[in-house]
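FAQ
Q: What does a multi-component entry look like?
A: The components come first, one per line:
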Amino acid sequence: MIGSQDDALKLRLKAMIIEECEKEDINPEELADDVELFSDASGLELDSLDALQISMGLQTQFKIRLGDSKDFRRVVTTINNLADYVQPE
Amino acid sequence: MIYIRKIGSVNAQEGEELDVKAAWKAVSPKMIRRTDRFIQLSLLGAYEAIGDSALDKNTALYMASGQGNLAVFKRLRDQRYINKQPPKPVDFINSLSNTAGFYVAQFFDLYGKNLNVSRQGLVVENTLLLAQVDLELGKEEQILLGGVDELQEPVSFTKRTLGVSDETLLGEGSNWMLLSAQEQGSLASVDVIKKQMNITGVKEYLQGVNSASKLAFGQRCSKEVIDEILDGDAIERSLYHVPCGFYETAALYTLNRFIKEGEGELLFIDNFGDSFRLIKVNLL
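Then the predicted structure of the entire assembly, as tokens:
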């Protein structure tokens, strides 16, 4: 199953982002699948240090290593996009 | 001689529960993210001293610690050598020596010098002396000075690294004072005796100290050292003792308590090995 269709995977990704970015006041289930994570619309108020934390979280919890910042910007856009990258099929 | 305008302390002894995160979150819920317990303890103590008052932006910040933020180094060690992972970026940043000082400066909107002093033994005395010299020379007009040490588990290991006996109760604290070269509006004057002495020098110095002056000893002064100093003194001295768990910057807790509840003059004597330093505090 492709990642964006896997609700359990998406919830794990949201929980990881919230944990790594210390945004415990936000309920993972309230984070929309198709919202740009690094936009005002997400309500997460993420910055470049959060990007590093998320990158580390992907590596430690999902064994996904993003080579550089270009890869990160291409992959970590929305939860759906990220989930498809983590689980392509 | 310099002057103390404000004081504030957070102090706890081994076995006491100090929920630093909850206490700091109540003060500043916005500034909790990315801070760890050492940083929160630093912020909480500084807030006890300054509260919501506005400080001059040029106020310097001198922060002393015996152990520094040791907990974050333990986390980094575990991430690297036990979990075989690279360090988390936030932990890496928090491991830099003056990160706690950065947060304190950010909270009080300070843009002055931000100095971190970490050493085992006499760390408070040396940091205070540095502040005193900078104020006396006019290099700084006002300094927010703090001493912060966090209790590290397991306590048996910490006692060994600190070089204290198994019976010694450990503590932790964040003690701060706002220092100025100007007397106006001050609570007390403080004078760190610039000369470092041996025990003979301390005994000679005591001969010239007013009989009304109270004496307090640092936590590293053994009973034998205290007895030797007092036995060689012609005057029956009044001792000032503040119960407090052991930590390297506890000297500031004693000074703050004296300023808060004492009266008259205090001579604080501390040592590390054969080196002694003396601090005089006069309540105004």
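Q: Is there any commentary attached?
A: Sometimes. For this entry: Chain A has one domain: 3-86.
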